[in-house]
Amino acid sequence: MRLTDGNRFVVGVTAGSGAVAAISTHAGADFLLALNAARLRNMGAPSIACMLPLSDAAQLVDGYADTELLAQADIPILIGTNCWREAFDAGALAKAVLARGFAGIVNFPPSSLYPDTIQRRLEIAGVGFSAELEMLKTAQDAGCIAVCYCRTVSQGRQAALLGLDNILLNFGWNSGGRVSPSSDMTLDEAATVAASFTRQIRRIRPDTCLLLEGGPVESEQDLEAVLRHADFNGYIGGSTFERLPVERSIADRIASFKLAKTRNAATQTPARQLIGFGRRSGFVGSDAALLAALEQMHAARQARPQFLGLFVPKGDSMTPAVQAMVRPRGGGRVLQVAEFSGHDLADAPRVLFGDGQRPGACFDTQTDVVVLRHPEALDPSLQARLAAHVIETGVAASPSRLPRMILVSHDPPERMQPDLGALMRAALIELPALRARPNDVKELLENAMGNQAQQRSGPARAFSPAAILRLRSHDWPGNTAELVAMCAQFARAPSRKPVSLDEVEAHLAVRTGLDPAEPPPDGDRRLLVVDALKRNGFRKGQTAQALGISRKTLYNWMKREGLS
């Protein structure tokens, strides 16, 4: 009896609990499998534990299949069994399975999941793959649905020649998630094996129901990639449906609840006022570290000191800090601001201090505020002259009609000319680095993704709660510039699903922003590329995106390292 007539693609779920059975049935699964691997997964063990001498496989399955699965599901349920017991009677087994209400059996745990040497020894002992085939054929002849787990084309051919109706190609343990390593097989390799498998089985029995499971096939996109090359009638999911979604869902839910306190803190009245002050100037966030800096800036705005220093972390824009200090208040006079940058200030002495005919910006009484960005880039002698001017005109608020001075820098005062550095240190407001304001990461991500969506005229891609929680703990050496660059990369990806924890981990492990013109040293480059390929399932386009390079550059690197 076949699971499908070939006109409908079927999906089976290995269910290790009544909850999984009920959810899968409601979601439209076509059949369920009761396997010891599924039960062990629900107990927190990896799937591979089903091949270890931890418990009797049949007893473990019988302990939950009748009471939990049959009670929850109204779709066919196949029960995992094997021929390893003494005095095993396949005919009696088939009758008992049908009498209990199950639709059929599968050879699980199968001998094919053991290494070749153990498979040969089991075969010699009379409990190997050949014995499993006889068990399945006897059950099928007795009216059971029988599904044969195979690992190779040779095993599939044996099953087809014996006349089994349902044959499963199993690529081994699923990769991905918390407890499974990366698959030894790439998706391209899996597609090649699958194509050969289906082609050879169809030559023997064209109407065989062929199923697929395991290995690098973790998502619907992976399955589609294989199905483009191979003619399967269905898919069976173990960890794909039972473990991976649960890991991600629970992680996201816990992360979402952890973020609740952060969301609540921003609703307090004093905080709301400072947040509003910051947002009007261009700041994003409400972390306590940012609010403390905004409180200092708000106080300085009221006091109007003659001199003020602002330290902005590298990678953050200086503009919000400047706007907070010079933006006109509601109904107030618009300040006349002269703004310069030490990096590109031509003829700086004349511009700042005049030439005897015209006063420089520091003496222009028509100007309210002189804003000098990157003062550390000025010649040290000019920095010393600027310090002398500040000392002469006064640091605190004064009735002086000379313009106030605001110096904004990405560098600490220690990197400036000593006199100017000392003044900066005495009148400095430091804006916190992104790693010091983790509660702002979620809002910054939403803001950056929203900007990307506007630029691309499409919907904004979100981040899963688990991904946000992970990014809150990142050290952000590049501050918001790093965050914005990361968001741009994820926005370019074809997926519109929320950015997952796995995607974030892969991104952080590789660290984007590599310059293709200056690749890492050969040894480091090889390790970098191999690691990125593994983390991205050997999908070259996705690997190139994770590395922050083009596909062409990736191919060149792989060719140089002998990885092509």
Number of DSSP helices? Answer: 25
Compute the number of strand runs: 13
**Approximately how much helix is present in the residues?**
40-55%
Strand content: 5-15%
Strand order of the largest sheet: 1-2-3-4-5-6-7-8
Shape descriptor reads: elongated
Distance between the termini: 45 Å
Q: Uncertain segments of ≥5 residues (pLDDT<50)?
A: 177-182, 512-524
Whole-number radius of gyration? 33 Å
Sheet with the most strands, sense and barrel status: 8 strands, parallel, barrel
* Quaternary structure type: single chain
Mean pLDDT: 82
Structural class, from secondary structure content? alpha/beta
Write the layout of secondary structure elements.
Elements: E1 10-14, H1 18-27, E2 31-34, H2 36-42, H3 57-72, E3 77-81, H4 90-100, E4 104-107, H5 116-124, H6 129-141, E5 145-150, H7 153-162, E6 166-170, H8 187-204, E7 209-213, H9 220-227, E8 234-237, H10 239-242, H11 244-258, H12 260-265, H13 269-281, H14 288-303, E9 307-311, H15 319-326, E10 337-341, H16 348-353, E11 369-373, H17 380-393, E12 404-409, H18 418-426, E13 428-430, H19 441-456, H20 465-472, H21 479-492, H22 501-510, H23 522-535, H24 540-547, H25 551-560
Parallel strand pairs: 1-2, 1-8, 2-3, 3-4, 4-5, 5-6, 6-7, 7-8, 9-12, 9-13, 10-11, 11-12
Written description of the protein model:
The longest helix is centred in the middle third of the chain and has 18 residues, at 187-204. With 564 residues, this protein is an alpha/beta fold. The protein has an eight-stranded parallel β-barrel, surrounded by seven helices. Strands 10-11-12-9-13 form a five-stranded parallel beta sheet. β3, α4 (90-100) and β4 form a beta-alpha-beta unit. α17 packs across α18 (418-426), α20 runs parallel beside α22 (501-510) and α23 crosses α24. The chain has helices at 18-27, 36-42, 57-72, 90-100, 116-124, 129-141, 153-162, 187-204, 220-227, 239-242, 244-258, 260-265, 269-281, 288-303, 319-326, 348-353, 380-393, 418-426, 441-456, 465-472, 479-492, 501-510, 522-535, 540-547, 551-560, and strands at residues 10-14, 31-34, 77-81, 104-107, 145-150, 166-170, 209-213, 234-237, 307-311, 337-341, 369-373, 404-409, 428-430. The model is unreliable at 177-182 and 512-524 (pLDDT under 50).
